[in-house]
Amino acid sequence: MTTTSTVSWSHEKIQANGIQFHYVTEGSGPLMIFLHGFPEYWYSWRHQISEFSKNYKVVALDLRGYGQTDRPQGRENYTIDVLVDDVKEVVSALGYEKCVLVGHDWGALIAWYVTMNFESYVEKLIVMNVPHPQCYMENLNLNQVLKSWYIWLFQLPKLPELYLKSRDYKWITDQFRGAVNSEAFSQKDLNNYKENAAHPGALTAMLNYYRNLPAKMIKKDITPIIQVPTLMLWGENDPYTGKNSTLGTERYVKNLDLKFLPNCSHWTQQDCPKEVNQYMSDFLM
Predict the structure, then answer these.
(1) Domain containing residue 242
(2) pTM higher than 0.90 for the full model?
(3) Which residues contact 232 (CB under 8 A, 6 or more apart)?
(4) 105 counts as catalytic
(5) Whether the Cβ atoms of residue 77 and residue 208 lie closer than 8 Å to each other
């Protein structure tokens, strides 16, 4: 298990795209931005921050609506266009022109769209357990629809918030217990995620990401071919998205390095931090 030290981490805030973002940072040099998924926050990158701060200025962002970042009201504030602009504006606000962009789950989906539409901002791309959006649609089948049952539930008003809040946020903490590595999540980790979800307005903000999904899965009518070097890491024991959704990725990513982790769950960088860090290090050399 990778040990985690927070002594040199700095908690900072920055204004970008009309709201205030919170992030954890360490190191100096080229910029590396980490984008977390649902129902997480910057903390999901606790095993990567110090590791990569040796060579980069690491920024583990709280996405809008999560953690200590602002939570504007209204579903229209959580469209994929807005989320993409968030990343672009944060890069500029930090004083950089480009970054190594790393994303998991929702963070990976945002990272795909940032790279497809604003590739000049991305030096290298690393995504975990979310397929290229076009490949997801092309490989969508009944089995995947059934795996994604929660997405359809999340479209309802109010009921999902009550469901996720019930029994002391049991559904949220239960998701992390599906990790392959039994030591991946301590009780402290689970409590942190529960507390993150319990912030006033946090659940609705998180769910608004999903409530905007059906509107437009592909941001542009023509999906541009990604030219930047791309590492795709996939934990094979993912109960939410099938491995077959990665099929055809090479058609949309010119310089693709796809690695499967056979004993790893959806929570890739937390379940198998040692392997993930090694793959990332090799890719970034």
Answers:
(1) 10-284
(2) yes
(3) 126, 127, 128, 246, 249, 253, 256, 257, 258, 259
(4) yes
(5) yes
